[in-house]
Amino acid sequence: MFDLAAQGSQMSAVLTLSPLVVGFINKVKARFLRRSGPPILQPYRDLLRLLRKETVLADHASWLFRSTPYLVFATTWVAAALVPTFATGLLFSWSGDLIAVIALLGSARFFLALAGMDVGTSFGGLGSSRETMFASLAEPAMIMIIFTVSLIAGSTQLSEIAASTLSHYQLRVSFGLALIGLAIVAIAENGRIPVDNPATHLELTMVHEAMILEYSGRHLAMIELASALKLLLYLSVIACIFAPWGLATANGDARAFVYGVLAYLAKLAIGGFLLALFEVSTAKMRVFRVPDFLGAALMLGLLGTLLLFVSRSF
Amino acid sequence: MPLTIALWSIAAMLALAGVVAFNQRVDATRIVYGLCFGFCLILFCTTIIPRGAVALTATLPLGLPWVGAHFRLDVLSAFFLAVVNLGGAAASCYAIGYGTHEKHPLRVLPFFPAFLAGMNLVVLSDDAFGFLVAWEFMSLSSWALVLAHHENAENRQAAFIYLMMASFGTLSLLMAFGLLAGSVGDYSFTAVRAAALEPWKSSLILALTLLGTGSKAGLVPLHIWLPLAHPAAPSHVSALMSSVMTKVAVYGFIRIVFDLLGKPDFWWGIAPMTLGAITAALGILFAMIQSDLKKLLAFSTIENIGVVFIGLGLALAFRANSLGLAAALAFTAALFHVFNHSLFKSILFFGAGAVETGTGERDIERLGGLIRVMPCTAFVLLGASLAISALPPFNGFVSEWLVFQAILLSPSLPQWSLKLIVPAVGVTLALSAALTAGCFVRAYGVAFLGRARSRAAAGATETDRWSLSAMSALLGLCLVAGILPSFLIDTISPAARQFVGGRMPAQGEIPWLSIAPIAESRSSYNGLLVCIFIVVSAFLAARVIHVFASRKVRRGAAWDCGFPDPSPMTQYTGSSFAQPIRRALGNVVFVAKDHLDMPTPGDMRAARLGIEIRDRVFEYLYAPISRSVGFCADQLNKAHFLTIQGYLSLVFAALVMLLLVVAIWR
Question: In this structure, are residues B484 and B528 in contact, taking their beta carbons and an 8 Å threshold?
Answer without folding.
Answer: yes
